[in-house]
Amino acid sequence: MQVKYDIALFFAGEDRAYVEMVAEQLKARGISVFYDFYEEENLWGKDLYVHLTDLYRKQAKFTLMFISKNYANKLWTNLERKAAQSRAFEESSEYILPARFDDTEIPGVLSTTGFIDLRKKSPVEVAVMVGKKLGVNPFEVKSHSVPPPKNELLIGRAKFDYSNNNGLFRIGSGAFEFSSRWSKASNTSIHCYTDTPNIRGVALAPKDSELENLDSVSIFDYTSRVRKPEIGRYVILQNTNGIYAALKIISIKDDSRGDEYDELVFDYWIQKSGSDSFVEYASRA
C-alpha cells in the first residue's frame, strides 16, 4: 500500500495546543505528518467523512491517537478511530499508536496496549519517539531547523533573543501568520527582513507615528528587502495573503554594546479584517 504520510494525528480540539507542538516537531524532523491545520486548503470542499475515512485507513504508515476525556466524546474522533481500527484489524499491525493525556477508556483500545503517557512526556519527546518508531534519526536534523518561537494571538507582545532561531519569531496563525526575521544593528535599532516565505514586504512608518496615524499603511514603501527600525518606531509587515501587521519596537538589547544578551521586544497588531488601517486599535493600545 502506497502511503502519503509517515504519521497521521487525531485528537480532540481541546488538546490542540499540545498536539500542534508535536506536529511542528515532527515536521522539523522531516517526518511527513497529517495535521488538519496543515491541510485546510486541501480539505476545503471535500466530503470529510469519505476523505478522512480513506486517509486514516490507507494514507499513513501510523496513526497517533491522543486519548483524553475530550477525545472520547467527539463524533469526528470516533469516525477517525473506527477507520484506523479497521486498518489495524485488517493488517494485524501496530498501526495505532496510543498517547494518553488521562486514563479515559476508548472502545477497541485494550488496556494491555502499549501507550505513551503524555503527563510524563513533552511534545519534543513524543516527536523523537515517533521518529524512532519510523526509523528516522532525529539528530540528523540540523539544530537550527527546529520551529522558532511563536505567539498565535492577533494582538500581543513578542520578547525573544534574536541571536537564536536564526532571528525568527512568528506571530499570528494560519492566513494571519507572519514569520518575522531580525538581526543585530545596535542597541537602539535592529534589522527586519523579508527573507521568510510568508513575508511579502516590510516598510517603516514615518518617525513619531502612532497607531492613530496608521490609517493607510499600503502607501508605504515596501521595495527593500531589509529595514532598520529604531526603538519607538513602527515597522509594517505584509504577508503573502495580503494581511498587514504593525509592530512597534519597544526595546533592544545588544551583547556587543554592554548588554548581557541580545533581546528584542515589540508590541504588534495584526489587522484581521484585511484593512490597511490600524486606527481602530489606537484606543486599545
Give the helices and strands, then pairings:
Blueprint: E1 5-10, H1 16-28, E2 33-34, H2 40-43, H3 48-58, E3 60-67, H4 69-72, H5 75-91, E4 96-100, E5 116-117, H6 123-134, E6 150-151, E7 155-160, E8 168-171, E9 178-184, E10 190-193, E11 199-204, E12 226-227, E13 234-239, E14 244-253, E15 263-270
Parallel strand pairs: 1-2, 1-3, 3-4, 4-5, 6-8
Antiparallel strand pairs: 7-15, 8-9, 9-10, 10-12, 11-13, 13-14, 14-15
Helix pairs in contact: 1-6, 3-5
InterPro entries: TIR_dom, Toll_tir_struct_dom_sf
Protein name: TIR domain-containing protein
Organism: Marinobacterium zhoushanense
The CATH class of the largest domain: Alpha Beta
Our estimate of the beta-strand percent is: 25-35%
Mean pLDDT across all amino acids: 87
Estimated structural class = alpha/beta
Radius of gyration equals 22 Å
CATH superfamily of the largest domain: Toll/interleukin-1 receptor homology (TIR) domain
Number of separate domains = 2
The coarse overall form would be: elongated
Query: What is the fold-level CATH name, i.e. the topology of the largest domain?
Result: Rossmann fold
Which second-level CATH architecture of the largest domain applies? 3-Layer(aba) Sandwich
Strand order of the largest sheet: 2-1-3-4-5
Q: Sketch the topology as an H/E string, one letter per element.
A: EHEHHEHHEEHEEEEEEEEEE
Helix content: 10-25%
Total number of β-strand segments? 15
Largest sheet: 5 strands, parallel
The low-confidence runs, each spanning 5 or more residues with pLDDT under 50, are: none
Protein name: TIR domain-containing protein
Domain TIR: 4-133
InterPro entries: TIR_dom (IPR000157), Toll_tir_struct_dom_sf (IPR035897)
Organism: Marinobacterium zhoushanense
